[in-house]
Amino acid sequence: MQTLRRTPLYEKHVEAGARLVPFAGWEMPVQYEGVIAEHKAVRTDAGVFDVSHMGELEVEGPAAEELLQSLLSNDVSKLAIGEVQYTLLTNEQGGIVDDLIVYRTDTARYFIVVNASNRDADFAWLSEREIRGSDVRDVSDDYALLAVQGPRALERLGLAPGKAFTWELGALDGVELMICRTGYTGEEGVELACMADEAPKLWDAILARGVVPCGLGARDTLRLEVCYPLHGNDIGPEWDAISGGLGWVCALDTEFTGVEVLREVKAAGPQRKLVAFRMTESGIPRQGMPIEGGGEVTSGSHSPMLDVGIGLGYVPAAASAVGSEITVDVRGKPRRAEVVPKPIYKREE
Q1: pLDDT tens per residue across span 67-104
Q2: What are the tens digits of pLDDT across the range 296-315?
Q3: What are the angstrom distances between the C-alpha of 27 and each of 17, 30, 105, 213?
Q4: What angle do CA 210, 216, 220 make, to 5 degrees?
Q5: Which residues make Cβ contacts (< 8 Å) with residue 192, sequence separation at least 6?
Q6: Can you name the CATH fold of 10-51+142-225?
Q7: Contact 95/258 with Cβ under 8 angstroms?
Q8: Gap between the terminal Cα atoms of the chain
Q9: Burial bucket for residue 199 (CB in 10 Å: 0-12, 13-18, 19+)
Q10: Alpha-carbon distance 98 to 309, whole Å?
């Protein structure tokens, strides 16, 4: 029986009465007050998520850029110190080993945040492909990561607005931080990396500023409303990046693993596409439900902001245009839905 790992904030979650569940080998809070309340807190004010289960790798050395350029889909050479990039680790078939965030922290050093379930596999993938002048290290246990998200997130933290996909060093209530202008909710906010032993102090300081603690349940519904893919659900090694709608992070004019396949898929056009949809009949779509015509739901839920069933799923390219009607098999009952633009939810100006 697998022993679940715990983040440095485990005791804080217990004290707060969080409902804890297994997730990617970790014992994580799925909710505190409730998914809908936490979701709406992030959409209207600010919420904080413990995402310390995510993995962190460092790649350093004079050949660090060369190594990453050969393995990652985006153009690492464009990153200046202080900049951040969303990218993919791809296999020989153009499939997505993982989606990750790369931070350039120095001339020859990069900090990479990877999905919790892929930490060991990603580390092995990179370290097995090391070249002379590059060194890959797993530093996950050294860090805690807290995501503070919402329209009032910066105000509550006392931070000035900043450019998206950048990072800087700073401090909050005495805790030294790496302040990253990134997130997984579609709202303004930051992800704060600190040393693991300082995480409880940082958590308390953030809650004292009026930020609502949120669990993985709200994190999932928030990311789904804005159509951010989840590795293992919507994207993965068996799905190519073009079909998954992530061609925008594939620099096809560079040379990386699987790029030839991706060039071919783009030139020919994918046979199926990952689309966003909204139910037009009653029913809540869930992962694995069939879509008539050979498609499948990859993520689905009830949208707390729109009060309707929403989802992501692969459909034949001919049925992927916005406005197309699709039929989802919801527990044996056909229910109509409509392909909609991404994101599904967008704040009214």
Answers
A1: 999 999 999 999 999 999 999 999 999 999 999 999 99
A2: 999 999 999 999 999 999 99
A3: 14, 9, 30, 16
A4: 110
A5: 145, 146, 147, 148, 172, 177, 178, 179, 180, 202
A6: Gyrase A; domain 2 (3.30.1360)
A7: yes
A8: 50
A9: buried
A10: 27
Residue 303: partners with Cβ closer than 8 Å, 6 or more residues away: 221, 224, 225, 309, 310, 344, 345
Amino acid at 239: W
Please give the structure tokens belonging to residue 28.
């994580």
CATH of 271-349, one of 3.30.450.20, 2.30.22.10, 1.10.3720.10, 2.40.30.110: 2.40.30.110
Within a 13 Å sphere around the CA of 5, how many CA atoms are in the beta-carbon half?
Answer: 15
All structural domains of the chain with their residue ranges: 10-51+142-225, 271-349
This prediction's pTM: 0.96
HSE-CB for 280 with a 13 A CA cutoff: 11
**Amino acid (one-letter) located at 242:** I
In this chain, the answer to whether the domains covering 10-51+142-225 and 271-349 adopt an identical fold is: no
Q: What are residue 176's phi and psi, to 5 degrees?
A: -75, 140
CA distance 282 to 331: 12
pLDDT digits (tens, 9 = 90+) for 190-217: 999 999 999 999 999 999 999 999 999 9
Q: What is the pLDDT of residue 347?
A: 85
Q: Among all chains, which residue has been given the structure tokens 């990039």?
A: 85
Beta bridge partners of 261: none
CA angle, residues 331, 336, 338, in degrees to nearest 5 = 125
Query: Which tokens hold the place of 348?
Result: 């009214």
Q: How far is CA 253 from CA 138, 239, 260, 263, 274, in A?
A: 30, 21, 10, 9, 23
